[in-house]
Known about the structure:
The complex is a heterodimer.
Chain A: E1 4-7, E2 10-13, E3 19-25, E4 33-38, E5 45-49, E6 53-54, E7 62-67, E8 70-75, E9 85-90, E10 97-98, E11 102-106
Parallel strand pairs in A: 2-11
Antiparallel strand pairs in A: 1-3, 3-8, 4-5, 4-9, 5-6, 7-8, 9-10, 9-11
Chain B: E1 3-7, E2 10-12, E3 18-25, E4 34-39, E5 45-51, E6 58-60, E7 68-73, E8 78-83, E9 92-99, E10 111-114, E11 118-122
Parallel strand pairs in B: 2-11
Antiparallel strand pairs in B: 1-3, 3-8, 4-5, 4-9, 5-6, 7-8, 9-10, 9-11
Amino acid sequence: DxxxxxxxxxxxxxxxDRVTITCRASRPISDYLAWFQQKxxxxxxxxxxxxxxxxxxxxxxxxxxxxxxxxxxxxxxLQPEDFATYYCQQYDSYPLTFGxxxxxxxx
Amino acid sequence: QVQLVESGGGxxxxxxxxxxxxxxxxxxFNSYGMHWVRQAxxxxxxxxxxxxxxxSNKYYADSVKGRFTISRDNSKNTLYLQMDSxxxxxxxxxxxxxxxxxxxxxxEVPLDYWGQGTLVTVSS
Lengths: 107, 124
């Protein structure tokens, strides 16, 4: 199975900050990498697929990069609605696997 | 608009069975692979199972293989998860989610829409 390791597991940031979350796959997955946002009590929401393609309707302050084993999700200017938990996920092979999550909290 | 609505969750004793359903609308259900993903309360996401658009291919997480069965009824636009021999560690919110793209294979396709989830609690 492909292990997905996210870091940090949590971070505190202020409104307007630039935030970067990293995700590492245990073996190369090309660009078969997605990012999801989850708010408390809600279902995950897809933000990015193909490592860097923005889902329709997702604001451009979100961006993704990387290929192979190392990936990043960047939020360019954090807003109150962005405080949530973010998960990376590989869909290169089964079983599909998720990172452990990064909780973005208000400083 | 795409809608996925799960149902069938509840409290069940260890060793018993439960069947979850996911009613789909707003897209051509019989053209997309479908998945179940679960999340134990306060924990991360765990993929459970996938079924291809026509039901011919299925894959399972090792943690549920041999106990859970994924199926679909394309005439009813409904996805199912039959859960047998339930254990305490199966306690979780169960989400159904769809492949983003039509594909004859079930690999290398991202997920897009998710249902709101249904809670399964396994407890005596």
